[in-house]
Amino acid sequence: MSVGSYAQAVALARTEDRALVEVEREGSRAVVRLNDPERLNPLSTALTVQLRIALTELSGDSAIRAIVLTGADPAFSAGGDLRMMRDVAHPMVDEDADGATGAWEWIRNEFGAIAKLITRTDKAFIAAVNGAAAGVGLSFALACDMIVASEQARFVPAFGRIGLLPEVGQSWLLTRRLGYQRAFELFATGRHLSGREAYELGLANAVVRHDQLMESASRWCEQLDRLPGHVLKMMKPLLRNASDMTWEQAIAMEEFAEPMCFTTDAHRQAVAELLAREA
Questions:
Q1: CA nearest neighbour of 56 among 9, 102, 120, 8
Q2: What is the CATH number of domain 6-225?
Q3: What is the average pLDDT across 177-203?
Q4: Are 13 and 51 in contact, with CB atoms under 8 Å apart?
Q5: pLDDT level of residue 96 (50, 70, 90 thresholds)
Q6: Which of 39, 50, 81, 204 could join 198 in a cystine, given CB atoms 3.0 to 4.6 angstroms apart?
Q7: Angstrom distance (rounded) from CA 159 to CA 157
């Protein structure tokens, strides 16, 4: 199929019969695994569309509270697929009568939609970074609510080396976490960060032995599962937006949110239990 538009790229992706994204459900959590390990789980058209569909389905599942995003060893994701750039993105830009807007649609409606879903859904997302997380793959990991890194993890802001700029929110995420100069250094040099370095810089919540990665992610899910349902749902948007608000805006948001918590059975039962211990 000749690919000259965004619609054709999606249609081509849907012809793939291999399962490039695996979903495992266990109680209130799900593990989503990028599964093209021989190629280091690149974000091809097919894998990307399958990932968007899988995450969209999970985000609408009321039984799921936490989603672990990982890759099949040895990588998390090599990022944007070079073959896709050559065979899809370049023809799309060159042949589409609408010029580069077809590529814009792909970036917005596929890559961007996945990042926005991770940040906006009320599910908790935990990235279990098992190997190299590069380019857009790194953007997806950074968008998650928590990151657990294997000692074999590599954080790779690789855009500059192939003549591209940071995308899918990565410039925003890294400059806020690392500061401008350190983020500039990483983008300019493409320097790889180990899992240990990512943890020390505050990009990861934990770094663990490789064989303990999924167990560690599971323990985080268990801790989140202990929270009352409304706390997780309300906490995520509160914290996500706080860094871009003034102090006055943030405290006003908290003032409106807190009274709703007083109306819940979970809050009242917890208060009663604590008071009973004091009696």
A1: 120
A2: 3.90.226.10
A3: 95
A4: no
A5: low
A6: 204
A7: 6
